[in-house]
Amino acid sequence: MTVGVLALQGDFREHCETLHRIGADPVEVRLPRQLASVNHLIIPGGESTTIGRLLALYGMLEPLRARAGRDLAVWGTCAGTILLAREILDQKRGGQPTLGVMDITVRRNAYGSQLDSFELSIEASAFGEGPLHGVFIRAPQIESIGRGVEAIARLPGGGIVAARQGRLLATTFHPELTGDARVHRYFLEL
Questions:
Q1: Alpha-carbon distance 7 to 28, whole Å?
Q2: How many whole angstroms separate alpha carbon 147 and alpha carbon 58?
């Protein structure tokens, strides 16, 4: 297994550090040839519009769409979740390049601006015993899921913050910022 972390923009270094800590040797993916060498890919948090435009600029949108969920397990955190989503409710005029491979509907910045970012314990038994520490930074929310998609973590009020569709994983929070590697281990098993 070879795990890659999309390293075009965002908090890819934190994902790489977490992967190193659990014994994986991640590849920083910036070009199509690097993408072709991995069978697991993390799309980090950052700015979804910028990441989408860079994916298009570097010719990685179509190769990612063709492989995602098939011979490539893909995990999107925060901005990565937006890029995976089939539908974005509050997309800016003209839209943004996205992958649209996961049957979820998301709302960008669902909880407000950067100042409204927060941390909260999340019950998510799919990732193991005990609550996860969720870090939500200008976070999206998964508003709805389609057939074949499982909500695997929710906020106490019921909002979906993690979902899985086969070999596709989406989290609206940032596990890489907490020191807890359970979600990374879970992803590597997909």
A1: 5
A2: 32
Report CA dihedral (101, 90, 144, 178) to the nearest 10 degrees.
80
Q: Are 119 and 133 in contact (CB under 8 A)?
A: yes
Other beta carbons within 10 angstroms of residue 113's beta carbon come to 8
Is 176 designated active site? yes
Residue 163 binned pLDDT confidence (cut-offs 50, 70, 90):
very high
Residue 133 catalytic?
Answer: no
pLDDT above 90: percentage of residues in the chain: 83
Give pLDDT, residue 132.
92
Question: What's the confidence (pLDDT) of residue 91?
Answer: 75
**Annotated catalytic residue: which of 14, 15, 16, 174?**
174
Looking at residue 96, what is its pLDDT? 81
Q: Is 16 a catalytic residue?
A: no
Active-site choice (15, 16, 78, 184): 78
Q: What is the CATH number of the domain that holds 61?
A: 3.40.50.880
pLDDT digits (tens, 9 = 90+) for 7-37: 999 999 999 999 999 999 999 999 999 999 9
Range of the domain at 167: 3-188
CB neighbours of residue 182 within 10 Å = 17
H or E element, residue 161: strand 160-165
Into how many domains does the chain fold? 1
